[in-house]
Automatic annotation (TrEMBL):
Pathway: Amino-acid biosynthesis; L-methionine biosynthesis via de novo pathway. The lineage of its organism: Eukaryota, Metazoa, Spiralia, Lophotrochozoa, Mollusca. One of its GO terms (biological process) is methionine biosynthetic process. The keyword Transferase applies. It comes from the Eukaryota. This is Hcy-binding domain-containing protein. Residues 43-106, 110-240 form the Hcy-binding domain. The keyword Cell membrane does not apply.
């Protein structure tokens, strides 16, 4: 089985790379790790769930399987009294990712270096270096891909990605969080409840989630900019990854189950059939109330 490598996929005409991230928040949402410390104990306690999520993201169109080792380091494990399980956690995560990548013919994340940074509210790093300049320096130092991930949503990440694209010669990455961030709240950490004014991060930001159309529009804009390495970070799910994959020319197995609203007995063409004669009234009740 020939598996096209990362560098070949990034070349002109190579199709780019679609990557599904966001394991931490999805497992927290499902109740398998704790917000705050965010240690990936699910790798140790429910490894079958992690393997299944790898498979779900590949099914949705991801070209890459990421070993779930995020925050699986000594300091974080010490916080929860499980420092002695450091090696077991990381080896287990790596083994599962390797197995799924080999089984599905996808890439397992590793070398060559893909280096993405998180842009918070300022357009500079915490070392006060403008991100376009920082990415250029990383590229000159040998990184295969440079760009941004996490922190900002599509609307607040893309303008900075455009500037990075101008500064860098090689492949650029864009992996935002799927939240409707604005100029007033550039990061998902800064989002506030429109009613109470309270900050919503990390457990109550679902009211700002991007929909599928938002993510498709992001992927289309990113593709036009020339982004070669693209995905969705914290808050991602298979449905969003499928949108990105389709824009980038993929036809993953999940496309078999893409929405077909024309078949809806209330909103589709089938609603005109005799057996669905009450559909128009039901639709009016749903939308208008009468």
């Amino acid at each position: 089985l020939f598996i096209q490598g990362l560098l070949d996929r990034l070349k002109e005409g190579g199709g780019g790379v679609v990557v599904a991230e966001g394991y931490v928040r999805e497992f927290e949402r499902r109740g398998y790790l704790s917000a705050g410390v965010f240690v990936p104990v699910v790798v140790l306690e429910h490894p079958d769930m992690v393997k299944r999520m790898h498979e779900e993201f590949v099914h949705a169109g991801s070209d890459v399987v990421l070993a779930f080792t995020y925050y699986g380091h000594r300091d974080k494990l010490r916080h929860i009294g499980r420092e002695d399980e450091l090696e077991k956690l990381n080896r287990t995560a790596l083994k599962m990712a390797r197995e799924v990548a080999d089984k599905t013919g996808t890439l397992m994340a590793g070398l060559p270096a893909v280096i993405t940074m998180t842009a918070y509210i300022p357009d500079v790093t915490t070392d006060d270096v403008p991100f376009p300049e920082a990415c250029r320096k990383l590229e000159e130092a040998g990184a295969a891909v440079v760009g941004l991930n996490c922190g900002r949503g599509p609307a607040t990440m893309l303008p900075l990605i455009k500037e990075i694209r101008k500064e860098c010669k090689g492949p650029v990455a864009a992996v935002p969080v799927p939240y409707r961030c604005t100029d007033e709240s550039r990061t998902f950490q800064s989002l506030k409840d429109p009613v109470t004014g309270e900050r919503l991060y990390p457990t109550n930001i679902s009211c700002f989630e991007c929909n599928r159309s938002d993510i498709r529009k992001f992927a289309e804009e990113a593709k036009n900019i020339g982004v070669k390495y693209i995905g969705v970070c914290c808050g991602n799910n298979g449905g969003l990854t499928r949108e990105v994959a389709q824009v980038y020319g993929r036809k993953p197995e999940a496309c078999k189950y893409s929405p077909d609203i024309s078949l809806s007995c209330v909103f589709g063409e089938s609603s005109k059939e005799e057996k669905y004669s009450r559909s128009s009234k039901i639709r009016d009740f749903m939308i208008k109330g009468n």
